[in-house]
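Q: Here's a chain of 243 amino acids. Please give me its 3D structure as tokens.
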Amino acid sequence: MRIKHFTDSDMDGISCGLLSALVLEDCDITTAGPNSIEDKLNRLFDQEAKGRKLFDKIIITDMSVGEELAERIEKNEKYRVRLYDHHKSAEWLNKYEWATVKVEDDLGKALSATEIYWQESVSKLLGKGAFGRSKNPHKHRVAEEYVAMVTSYDTWAWEAKGDMMPKYLNHLMGIYGSELFQDAIRKCILQGDSVMSPEDLTMARAEEIRQNKYLRAKLEDVVEMDVLGYSFGVVFAEQYKSE
């Protein structure tokens, strides 16, 4: 079975792709932004309409599609498309059987796309083979640990708990780059090792110090403005934009 996986390019998105690479033998993974996923999907469907189907299954994670493309999928592609997302703006897609969108779990805990994909698909596949819980409990445990850290970072739960490890994990992705980061995490999971080595922690902590120093300096450059009765601050920052 040939599989195509489209996913976002942040840590949550690439982690979904990482899980696919662990459990799916013939999976072509492509990162795409929320603004480009529709073009990529439509081009693929248009290309296939002129010839044979290139993929038996299409997975979309950490992104959603608009109404027009959703209807195209429902009409022609629903038998092979699966979408997993956690953004509230995409909840309307739950009317389709091929879409699973969850903002939080039954206990009210915010979810990441990685955790949804893990729960709905990957962990079930692991139970059937790959490195299932019964035969390789350490590998399964490390994978679960990694998924939990991704969720904590993506939902900002780490900040509320004062747990720096998920943030350190994101620092490592910035240090290594996406490809090397995924290779390192795959190796940790397959070997049943801890997600981060002592050397990784040292590098991540050093990056945290650099980030804090940068942010403190930028706070001094904030320009306060009042527009239409609202007060806000403006600052130019070429790094650490999400922070």
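Q: Can you summarize the key feature?
A: The radius of gyration is 20 Å.
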